[in-house]
Amino acid sequence: MSMQGVQDEEKIDLTKVEAKRLRARSMRLLLSLVRPVRRRLILSFSTVILSQAFRVVGPALIAYGIDQALPLAVKGDYIALWYTVGAYLLAATATAGLTYFFISYAAKINQDVILDLRQRVFVHTQKLSLEFHEKYTSGRVIARQTSDLDSIKELLDTGGNEMIAGLLYMIFTGVALVLLDASSFAVMLVSLVPLYFLTRWFQKQTRINYRKTRVASARLIVHFVETMTGIRAVKAFRKDTRNNAEYAGLVEDYRAVNAKVIQLFGIYDPGLILIGNLTVAGVLMIDGLRVIDGALGFGVLTAAILYAKRFFDPMEGMAMFYNAFQSSASALEKISGVLEEEPSVPEPVNPVPFKEHSGHIEFDDVEFHYSNGKTILPNFNLDIPGGQTVALVGTTGAGKSTLAKLISRFYDPTVGSVRIDGVDLREVANEDLRRAVVMVTQEAYLFSGTVADNIALGRPGASQSEIEDAARAVGVHEFIESLPDGYNTDVNKRGGRVSAGQRQLISFARAFIADPAVLILDEATASLDIPSERAVQNALRTLLAGRTAIIIAHRLSTVSIADRVLVMEHGQIIEDDTPAALIAGTGKFAKMHKAWRESLA
Amino acid sequence: MKPMGTVATLLRIFPYAKKALPRVILGTIAALGAHLFALTIPQFLRNLVNGLQDHGTVEKLVPAVLAVLALGICEAGFVLLRRWLVLTPGTHVEAGLRRTLYAKLQELPVSFHDKWPSGQLLSRATGDLSLIRRWLSFGLVLFVANAITIAVGLAILFTYNWLLGLIFFVSSIPIWVRGFKFEKNYHSIARLSQDQAGDLATSVEESVHGIRVLKALGRGDFASAKFARDAAELRGTEVKKANLIADIWIYLILVPEFAVGASMLVGVWLVSQGQMTVGALVAFFATTTVLRWPTESVGFLLSMTLDAKTAITRFFEVLDAPIEIDDPENPKTISEPKGRLEFKNVSFKYPDAPAEAAPLLDGVNLTLEPGESVALIGITGSGKTTLTALSTRLYEVTGGAIELDGIDIRDLSREELRRHMAMAFEDATLFSASVRDNVLLGRPEATEAELAQALEIAQAQFVYDLPEGLDTKIGEEGLSLSGGQRQRLALARAVAAKPSVLILDDPLSALDVDTEAMVEDALRTVLTATTALIVAHRPSTVQLADRVALLENGRITAVGKHSDLLATNAHYRHVIASLDEEKEAIR
Ligand SMILES: Nc1ncnc2c1ncn2[C@@H]1O[C@H](COP(=O)(O)OP(=O)(O)O)[C@@H](O)[C@H]1O
Ligand SMILES: Nc1ncnc2c1ncn2[C@@H]1O[C@H](COP(=O)(O)OP(=O)(O)O)[C@@H](O)[C@H]1O
Ligand SMILES: [Mg+2]
Ligand SMILES: [Mg+2]
Questions:
Q1: Which domain does A225 fall in, by range?
Q2: Given CB atoms, is B580 within the 8 Å cutoff of chain A?
Q3: Contact criterion met (CB below 8 Å) for A516 and A438
Q4: pLDDT tier at B383 (50, 70, 90 boundaries)?
Q5: pLDDT for B158-216, tens place per residue?
């Protein structure tokens, strides 16, 4: 179905059905955000109602002052005047107090809503499978969580309060005017007609254009993030000048659509003022005629004019709110799209208990292809008994990493099943699975935080001595000690302060400390020098006792610690035996091994 | 850096807004015009009311109503004019700032990027800049216009009656006092909130870029918990901010309302004493109504201004950062590149290394003759990658010099230097672009044949089998490639640049044995003609080079042939050749 999830996200001109679907989806999200705070919202609205009621009393009191208290005062009777003034001040104090309460209370609600949404998007993107992240760029995920969320934050800041307050103020003003003078109110009712059409026009125009701004802004962020992430390559290959031109193009696209929406508001807002002023003139004309007829007092005339004028006062704020609303509506469309995405490897609803494991891995008639449809593993069967160390070798593209990703359930097989200890991975709770299976890959990403934090990522709550033991095991302890603050050194973003090899060692330590039943190493030693690799291998020898391990490596030195070697080609296992037997044979592995031996000479 | 005053900080943005300034000023005038028209309406009301009082006639009414009508239309017209004047130029200023920031970030040395979390840069390039735009085209304009309107309005109030005017004038004093106090409190919290937003963006970025690690370790929940903590902190700051705003609102509502109350008392008394007309009193109240919005808006305009100030400060933190690695004033050029690379007593220490630590590189001497290829060997962390980065000035030597064809690389423009030298990094970065664009990054003008040749040398012929061949989009926004595939493309990219010096940082680490052997054979043909510095971990890669240099404790401690070093140097054996042990092990 089109518009499902993030599909067609950049589409601007939607059909009626599509637009309706997006609106419903955004609305559902909005409602689900509002639901948990609805009680507090009601309280918050009540204070608005009260404060606006007090506010509206003002002009009526002035009218009363002029029409009633003034003639009495002329006669020397000031009591009524004092009461009027007293009431006015009381109303003003109540308005101010309620407004204070309301602003700080509403801010808390708004912030809670934003916090809720932030977390939801974050948690959800973490949940989404690798498949999603591979096609949806990181820059776009970032854009969703930064600029799109900002635009919703802006909406809340501009204030649903403002909207509600404004609306109530208008209603109260209307009611007050009806009570005071119905015919003035009739004039105001007429003014609602052009108001309606103007708003309709604004709504239609902005919806399309705001959608464009979200897309343009995401593109801007994608480009920005990519440049800053790859800044070394950008500099080394002098991409900077070309980048400036490219980015300037994106900036201009964004500017142009942004200018467009701002201009729309630039017409909408004065349009509202015009309608307001015309109404005042209308009220003045009609009421003026009635004053001439003697049907109306000056006080009421004043009040009617004040009301008519003030009736449109909140329009500006409401228009701004509506503008922010339109902007965030398209942000909501995008965010709700991400939230609608389902993990392609979903958590089981009723997970099978999975605590004790020997690490027995089985592939049962597995067939697998990525989303592009090209079959990578055709009818694959494999049985790895618990505790075995398996070396997996084969040319690039043979499907080794794919196999590893299936065991760690980054993907689910298209057909057949992958089982550990007889349990289909699809029935294992994510948490249990991650405790049982850990994979270390070539990309050793370090998060900002200390070195100790990064190692402890393998097992939150690990003690300092456990962390140091893990580091010692892979031979990175001395290096870490030599850092400015030892284990407490901040590795900064992307682990900029450590060399690639050190980064890989730290990520090893991270896997070791996790202590899994099944350990998968996918070319994890590629950037290590020989002494470090040797240290890691020695560590593995002791560490792998009693665990299942799958080691993918080009350096056949790894084979030394394996019980069994699997040679893979085109998604199939072509050789499977002990290292000694394969080396002695005449197959593919014997040839690879010979070539490798020669390369060492 | 010492903190700057609000006005001084705000003024710093004006050079960037020069083009927009005339229209911003005109816009301010238009805004003022709109307010003044609004202020004039009550004048007509007074005349009307006074006129109607003694035997009003329709003849008296109609002109007054028409005048009010005309003024109302004028007001709307001026608002339209203001928006039309300032909005488009505002977006141009924002776009200009964005381009400036981006260009500056690309100029800044790698050490700057090491230091700055990327989310902080992103939040500056997005949220902060749009804040500045809104302030410039809205906040500033209205602030000035409203201030003048309030002043004029006060003056008009005086014309109705000096006593009533005085009441309003005196009542504005507590607002000013309060405003100054607000400025002090608000601005530190505004800064905190923008910084926290940047940190949050960093968390988001890392969680996305490190998604594979988080998934492999099952630490999504852990990351989410950390994110939740950070987000909750930001929430706390925002609530504090709102409380400050709520605080000033009390004053903005209460003070004018009390003034109105007092005026009612005095005004009615004045009318009853015959010292003022009813019309004037009606007009007086109508005027205070017109002034109400400009007065109340002071609150949010003030907070907006302070937010903008913080955003401007944050913008200039990047813009003021020194470009430590700059082009020389009179760059030399190399007319006939030969590719002789010489490290002369090079020393280097990362800027954030502890002061007492020994330099990472401490007197590196190494010469690569034209056409020669040298393998650089050393244990992990010995500084090999750092040395390669120094030679293209991604970092700057802290002592000694690097010379290319006898010219200090600091005397060349960076553009020229990087044209003569091409690198393959140890982590292959591909950009979201076609295969072709990625490979020809260093030399877009290369021919199809040269491209094909580079791909062949790097054994990257797999690209022809991609869905759209050389035009397939790869990188983040395109097809995902395996580590080995990425590395081969990065190698092809360095080769395609046809530099006189090739710098390859562990270029074959992710390749399987067969592919590695093929790449090596193909590379040899290139290396006969090109000077090359090859960081290597494996004996097989070392075989590519004519000579080997051993990096140890910040110096080159041995240079020579692989076999000679193997025989004579114990550290060398330790680093590269555990051959006997390994042979032992595989048996
Ligand atoms: N995310 C993906 N989407 C589509 N195809 C993929 C993806 N990852 C890998 N492939 C393809 O699957 C095949 C096997 O890849 P992989 O398992 O990474 O091989 P190996 O690890 O043995 O080098 C290759 O042809 C590769 O191009
Ligand atoms: N950006 C950086 N800031 C500070 N220190 C760094 C930075 N990059 C690397 N280092 C440190 O410098 C040393 C050498 O790193 P590197 O040159 O990458 O080593 P290698 O020889 O493994 O390539 C390492 O110990 C690392 O901790
Ligand atoms: Mg692989
Ligand atoms: Mg390195």
A1: 36-339
A2: no
A3: yes
A4: very high
A5: 888 888 888 888 888 888 788 888 888 888 888 898 888 888 888 888 888 888 888 88
Question: Does A527 reside within a domain?
Answer: yes
Q: What pLDDT is recorded for position B585? A: 43
Ligand 1, CB within 6 Å, residue ranges? A 134, 370, 372, 376, 394, 396-402; B 480, 482
Q: What are phi and psi of B250, to 5 degrees?
A: -50, -50
User: Which is more confident, B281 or B363?
Assistant: B363
Ligand 2, atom 27, lies closest to the CA of A498
Same-domain check for residues A476 and A327: no
pLDDT of residue A493: 54
For B273, the domain range is 19-319
Q: Which residue of B has its CA nearest to A233?
A: B429
- Whole-model pTM? 0.87
Residues lining ligand 2, CB < 6 A?
A: A 496-499, 501; B 114, 350, 352, 360, 378, 380-386
> Of A581-585, B57-61, B515-519, which range is least confident?
B57-61
Does residue B6 sit within a domain?
A: no
d(CA B573, CA B566): 6
What ipTM is given for this predicted complex?
0.88
Same domain, residue pair A313 and A435? no
pLDDT value at position B582?
44
Domain tally for chain B? 2
CA distances from B356 to A482, B8, B352, B390 (A): 12, 39, 11, 22
- Best residue among B463, B482, B516 to mutate for probing ligand 1's pocket (most ligand atoms within 8 Å of CB) is B482
Same-domain check for residues B255 and B352: no
Q: Can you tell me the distance from the alpha carbon of A259 to that of A280, in angstroms, rounded to the nearest whole number? A: 32
Shared domain for A264 and A384, answered yes or no, is no
Q: Whose CA is nearest to atom 16 of ligand 1?
A: A399
Write out A85-131 in H/E/C secondary structure.
Answer: HHHHHHHHHHHHHHHHHHHHHHHHHHHHHHHHHHHHHHHHHHHCCHH
Hey, is the C-beta of A12 within 8 angstroms of any chain B C-beta? Answer: no
Tell me the residue length of chain B: 587
B49, B209, B253 member nearest A99 (Cβ): B253
Same domain, A221 and A297: yes
Chain B contacts in chain A segment 146-205 (CB below 8 A): 146-147, 150
A305/A390 same-domain check: no
Indicate if A230 and A331 belong to the same structural domain.
yes
What pLDDT sits at residue B535? 93
Calpha distance B203→B123 (Å, rounded): 12
Interface contact A85, partner B, CB < 8 A: yes
Residues A553/A523, Cβ–Cβ less than 8 Å: yes
Whether chain B has a CB inside 8 Å of the CB on A532: the answer is: yes
Ligand 2 atom nearest to B384, measured from its CA? 21
Q: Are residues A379 and A235 in the same domain?
A: no
How many structural domains does chain A have?
2
Indicate yes or no: CB of A236 within 8 angstroms of CB of B418: yes
**Which residues, including other chains, have CB under 8 Å from residue B77's CB and lie 6 or more apart?**
A270
| Stretch 159-218 of chain B: residues touching chain A, C-beta under 8 Å | 200-202, 204-218
For chain B, say whether A588 makes contact (Cβ under 8 Å): no
* Same domain flag for B291 and B349: no
